[in-house]
Amino acid sequence: GAVVSQHPSWVICKSGTSVKIECRSLDFQATTMFWYRQFPKQSLMLMATSNEGSKATYEQGVEKDKFLINHASLTLSTLTVTSAHPEDSSFYICSARWLASGSYEQYFGPGTRLTVT
Amino acid sequence: AQSVTQPDIHITVSEGASLELRCNYSYGATPYLFWYVQSPGQGLQLLLKYFSGDTLVQGIKGFEAEFKRSQSSFNLRKPSVHWSDAAEYFCAVGSNDMRFGAGTRLTVKP
Fold first, then answer.
1. Spatial distance between the Cα atoms of A48 and A46, rounded to a whole number of angstroms
2. Whole-Å CA distances, B11 to A86, B8, B46, B87, B88
3. Closest CA in chain A for residue B5
4. Do B103 and A43 touch (CB under 8 A)?
5. Residue A49 Cα, gap to closest chain B Cα (Å)
6. Cβ partners under 8 Å of residue B29, min gap 6
7. Does residue A8 have a cis bond before it (omega within 30 degrees)?
8. What is residue B56's three-state secondary structure?
9. In chain B, which residue's Cα lies nearest the Cα of A37?
10. In terms of Cα–Cα distance, which of A9, A97, A34 is closest to B43?
11. Mutate which of A36, A106, A113, A115 to test chain B, going by most B C-beta atoms within 10 A?
12. How far apart are CA A89 and CA A82, in angstroms?
């Protein structure tokens, strides 16, 4: 149980275009979803936290107009990287939490590798 | 503010040897502590977690960790390392939001 999927697993896009990454909780309802980015050989950095039906809360330094997050349902959150540039190339990982479980544990997706050319 | 420190960037151990990965945290209240493992190009897999209760926590794959409040530590241990344990290990702390340490890369020598 507690499986989180991401789609696509990898994507290459041209500079200036936008790309959407989906994060789904497959067997539970995710009251909260999180988006992280990870540069090569570095740790995960929290980008934003989103609660279903609410606007996402972005971490300091993360451009909300560039990284659009939508959490329209209890099983789906999307991250759209708008007007992507090569410096946005990174590994993006989502996680989901089900607070009704009484646990603060986050279940992580397998990640999406974005390469901007 | 909560933070996590993993002092060791890279550790090499021989297969069959014991392992300890260090983690120190800074947190204002009772911490929720986690250890995750990440293989190259993959997501994170939870090894174990501590919320409360017994300070020695057993996890998957033969790992365990001990919460020591006096030392603000949550070190990960394994008595006998297998070659398949080679990966990146992250300690994390948090409840509503999670903060990760920088990670420790484990190399296992045959």
1. 6
2. 32, 7, 20, 10, 10
3. A43
4. yes
5. 8
6. none
7. yes
8. strand
9. B43
10. A9
11. A106
12. 12
Looking at CA atoms only, how far is residue A42 from chain B in angstroms? 6
Q: For B20-51, write each residue's pLDDT tens digit.
A: 999 999 887 778 999 999 988 788 899 999 98
Please tell me the distance in Å from A18's CA to the nearest CA on chain B. 23
CA distance B29 to A23: 31
Residue A3 has phi, psi (to 5 degrees) of -105, 135
Q: How far apart are CA B90 and CA B74, in angstroms?
A: 11
From chain B, pick out residues whose CB is under 8 angstroms from the CB of A108.
Answer: 36, 43-46
DSSP B71: G
The total number of residues shown for chain B amounts to 110
- Give CA–CA dist A30/A105, Å, rounded: 11
Identify the bridge partners of residue A4 per DSSP, sorted by sequence position: A25
Residue B43 to residue A46, Cβ atoms within 8 A = no
Length of chain A (residues): 117
A27-51 tens-digit pLDDT: 888 889 999 999 888 889 999 999 8
pLDDT tens sequence across B5-24: 999 999 999 999 999 999 99
Q: Which residue of A has its CA nearest to B46?
A: A107
Tokens of B21: 């990965």
* Cβ contacts of A42 on chain B, cutoff 8 Å: 102-103
Enumerate the β-bridge partners of residue B33: B50, B93
CA distance B61 to B92: 18
pLDDT score of A5: 94
